[in-house]
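Dear V.,

Thank you for sending over the compound details. I've combined the ligand you provided, zinc ion, with the protein sequence from our construct and run the structure prediction for the complex. I'm sharing the raw inputs here so there's no ambiguity about protonation or stereochemistry in the SMILES, which I know was a concern on your side last time.
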Amino acid sequence: MAIKSLVVQVRVDVAGKAHNCQANSKHRIKKGDTRLKVRNSRGWNHYCCACAETIISKDILKLTELKKLEVSQTSTL
Ligand SMILES: [Zn+2]
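Below is the predicted structure of the protein with zinc ion bound, written out as structure tokens.
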């Protein structure tokens, strides 16, 4: 199957039960909260809305850079 998206392994859903954010264990996701779901090799990682915004903002920057189709000079992204 042809790859048509770089972000297929991400979803937004609603927590079925309370648990900690997987980016920061001090962040609590309550039952019914919206959360970001990101596929990993074994299952899914779940992040709270604050971390989701950070992750998505970083990826938007990364995608904006990639869109220029310039050969990568560093691995900092
Ligand atoms: Zn978080």
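A first observation: The mean pLDDT is 92.

Warm regards,
I. M.
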